[in-house]
Design brief:
By secondary structure, this protein is of the alpha+beta class. The chain has one helix and 13 strands, in the order αβββββββββββββ. It has a domain of about 70 residues. The longest helix has 29 residues. The termini are far apart.
């Protein structure tokens, strides 16, 4: 009788130890931060904490399908980022584009003094403005007479080279000059080639490059 009781107690102890070891192993796996072997799953892998991927090969992370990053994207602190709410993209280096680029907005800003250089050895452009202005010479322009007037061009300074496209010029009147003579001002000139002409105000288009 005592032998049977002793055997039963041994069995109980062994079962208890086995259960305890199993529980401790599961708990250790649940709290593990490093897994030394490959993981393959046909379902979804959910990670609620921070995930660190370390790989000694040249390929750190490969995604063969579509990657969904809901929360924005940041690389190397400030080298490349995409804002979650707006989609605004920051590139800390040089953007190289080999194909065509489509810009939906005409506003271009640059913190440096160089906006763009066109072609090898081309002229550096640091400012580009355009718009329209009202041009009114007033009165009558006598034969063989030149006249000048100013039109308002916001943002233009004397550092800009200006280009003017006149419209609806009266017959025998020649457009002959445009220059940035003061801030926000373009001076334009015309010339009557053969006869006196009554001048009326017009809207002309201008462009200024610095």
């Amino acid at each position: 009788m005592k032998v049977k009781e002793w055997l039963k107690s041994k069995i109980v102890i062994q079962v208890g130890l086995a259960s305890l070891i199993t529980i401790l192993a599961v708990a250790a796996l649940a709290g593990a931060t490093t897994i030394g072997t490959n993981i393959s799953t046909s379902g979804t892998l959910d990670v609620t904490g921070v995930t660190t991927v370390v790989n000694a090969s040249s390929t750190l992370l490969t995604v063969s399908g579509m990657a969904y990053l809901n929360g924005g994207l940041t690389m190397d602190t400030n080298k490349f980022s995409v804002a979650d709410a707006t989609g605004n993209t920051l590139i800390g280096g040089t953007l190289g584009v080999t194909g065509l680029s489509t810009l939906a907005s005409t506003a271009v800003t640059n913190a440096s003094t160089t906006l763009a250089t066109f072609g090898s050895g081309g002229t550096t452009v640091s400012g580009l403005l355009w718009g329209t202005c009202s041009v009114g010479f007033g009165g009558t322009l006598d034969v063989d007479t030149a006249s000048t007037t100013n039109c308002t061009a916001t943002g233009v300074t004397t550092s800009y080279k200006v280009f003017m496209t006149p419209s609806n010029l009266e017959p025998r009147v020649v457009f002959n000059s445009a220059s940035s003579t003061a801030d926000n001002t373009i001076q334009v000139g015309i010339y009557s080639a053969s006869s006196s002409v009554s001048m009326t105000p017009q809207t002309w288009t201008w462009m200024a490059i610095k």
